[in-house]
Amino acid sequence: SRPVLELVDLVAGYRQRQGAWGRRREVRAVAGVNLTVHPGETLCLVGESGCGKSTVARTVVGLLRPLSGEVRFDGRDIATLSHAERKRLRREVQLVFQDPYASLNPTMTVYELLSEAWRIHPGLVAREDWDTEVASLLERVGLNPSHAQRYPHQFSGGQRQRISIARALSVKPRLIVCDEAVSALDVSIQAQILNLLAELQRELGVAYLFITHDLGVVRHFADRVAVMHLGTIVETGEVAELYERPAHPYTQALLSAAPSLDDWRSTATDEIVLRGDAPSPLAPPSGCRFHPRCWKAEDRCRVDEPQLVHRDTDHPVACHFPAEVSDVSATG
Ligand code: SF4
Ligand code: MG
C-alpha cells in the first residue's frame, strides 16, 4: 500500500543569530531523515532528548516548515498543497503530546473539547449526532460517557491522556503523531494507554508515529523502530529484528540501558555506559556523529560519515563497523 507519511531527506530546525549583529546560522536539529509510515502501522522513533525527534513531530504536523527535503502525505509534498487540501491534512494528521493538561483547554468541558473540531470541519459529524458521537468516543477510550460535562482537572493524568486520544479520534485521523505520549504516566498506566492505542489501531486502522526516549516501552507496541541520534537515523528495522540483533553501537547502548520489562533481552548484555553527554546539534562531531561516545570508534569514524545502508532487505544501519556484519561475511 502507498505510505500515509514519507519523510524524504528532511532537514529541519531553526535559524539562530550569533550575537546582536552576527550572521544567522542554521541549527539542523533534523539533518537529513528518511522515514516511511504505512496505513495502520506503528513506527516508533526512539532517541535521547535533544536528538531532533520533537522537531520531526512538529514538521510532520505542519507546525514547522522544513529547511529542505519533503514531508509527503499520501504521496504528495505538503508544501505544494492547496488551502483546502491543507485543511484536510490538519484533520487527518493529529498530534498527541506528553502533557495532556497543557494541551487540553482547562476552561472547556470534555464535550466541548471533543466536539470543537466539528465546527471547523462541517460535514464530519452532523449537529444532531454530536451527543451520541461524544458518548461513543468516550466509551471507545474507556471513559464514562456520563462525564462529558466535566472539566479536564476533574480527571487523573491517565484519564486526561484518554481525553486527548478521544479528541484526536474525533476528526477521524489517518495518522496520529504521539510525542512522548505516555512518558509522564506511571508504568501501569503507560501499559493501559498503549493497549488502548493498539486496540484503536485494530478497530480503526489508524497509523502511529510514536516518539519516545524509552526503547523498553515500545517492545510490544511497535511494528518498526527507527533509532535517531543527533538529527539522523542510525538504524531502523522490524521490532523483533532490532531488539534481537541491534547492529549500531548506539542502539545497543539504548537497549542495554532500557529497563527490562520482561524476557525480551535474550542475549544477556551488561549495561553499556556512554561517555559524556550527547553533543549539541549546533556543532555536530565530524565524521560519525556518534564517534565521541562510541567504544568501537576507529580513525575512519572521525572523518567519514557513515550512510544508512541496507545490510539485508530491511534493516539499514549507519555504521562503519556494525555488529554481526563481520560474522556474516566470515561465514559466507
Ligand atoms: Fe561507532 Fe564508528 Fe560505527 Fe560511528 S561509525 S557508530 S563511531 S563504529
Ligand atoms: Mg522531545
Question: Could you list some keywords that capture this structure?
Answer:
single chain, alpha/beta, about 325 residues, Rossmann fold, binds magnesium ion
Concise summary:
The chain contains eleven helices and twelve strands.
Description:
The protein has eleven helices and twelve strands. Helix 4 (110-120) packs parallel to helix 6 (157-169). Residues 261-268 and 325-332 have low confidence and may be disordered. The chain has a single domain, classed as Rossmann fold. The chain has 332 residues and is α/β, with parallel strands linked by helices. The protein is 31% helix and 22% strand. The protein has helices spanning 53-60, 83-92, 100-103, 110-120, 130-140, 157-169, 187-204, 239-244, 249-257, 299-303, 325-331, and strands at residues 5-17, 24-37, 42-46, 68-73, 76-77, 93-96, 175-179, 207-212, 224-229, 232-238, 309-310, 316-317. Strand 9 (224-229) and strand 10 (232-238) form a beta hairpin. It has a six-stranded mixed beta sheet, with helices on both faces. It has a four-stranded antiparallel beta sheet with strand order 2-1-4-5, covered by helices on one side. The longest helix is centred in the middle third of the chain and has 18 residues, at 187-204. 38% of the residues are buried. Bound molecules: iron/sulfur cluster and magnesium ion. Magnesium ion (MG) binds at residues 49, 53-54. Iron/sulfur cluster is lined by residues 248-249, 288, 290-291, 294, 296-297, 301, 306, 319-321. One of its GO terms (molecular function) is ATP hydrolysis activity. This is Oligopeptide/dipeptide ABC transporter, ATP-binding protein. InterPro entries: AAA+_ATPase, ABC_transp_ATP-bind, ABC_transporter-like_ATP-bd, ABC_transporter-like_CS, Oligopep_ABC_C, P-loop_NTPase.
